[in-house]
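Record type: monomer structure entry
Structure origin: computed from sequence
Chain ID: A
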Amino acid sequence: MAASSIDTGTSDLLASLDGGVLTLTLNRPEARNAMSGEMNQALAQQLAWAELERSVKVVVVTGAGKGFCAGGDVKGMNARNAGSGQPATLDEAIHSQRVNQRATAGKLFKMPKPTIAALPGAAAGAGLSLALACDLRIMARTAIMTTAFAKVGFSGDYGGTYFLTQLVGSAKARELYYLSDRITADEALALGLTNWVCEPEELAAKAAEVATRLANGPTVAYRYMKENLNRAMAGEVDDCLDLEATHHVHCGQTEDHREAAKAFVEKREPVFQGR
């Protein structure tokens, strides 16, 4: 049966359903699929629908072009910092961030169906968080992972501190957050951050193979299996998401973040002042 395209309401997110596999493609290749408001809203809507839609057995999240997701749109952040964005109170911004995180990364983690991230290229910042929120990950050999937040004066969001700590332990997670080093696909495999590494031209086929196998599997068992696995993890993801949202939005008010966003646009290294 041919894949059926789904109207997401925006070109920033593409969706198709084929044999029980819902594929969601982050579609801003010119910006390495950096998040936009339209993308996040559509992603939240599609995941909410997928959770309850019986025809959806598995969700695959991937990126168009050469990247998975670069995380937040730093150029857009710089424009907002310069006064061209819509102002919001601190409380409004934190609440909005909390709602969006739970509806996207939180939903990928908690929905009672298997979720897969297929990474054709870089997963950075919140993009890495989205990938880590999924149950399974497949990386093209040329793809990389990086927390990236320290480089733009942010503390991190979308559950990344929770997911990364669970996967690699606290000490390694701190190293990866503090230093923001790039992790190659082979290093990610050794660390347990990805389940498979394949050649770039084989990524789509490998994702389809794993997703089809899951779509054809015992969905009720998977539902309870996933709940069991999630409950086996220490702590509560919502607590982490909420704390991250508060700190992340607060960091967006700092001089260091504004300097880093400005430096990014000007293609230079930021000079952090610790304020």
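Annotation 1: The mean pLDDT is 93.
Annotation 2: The chain has one domain: 4-201+216-265.
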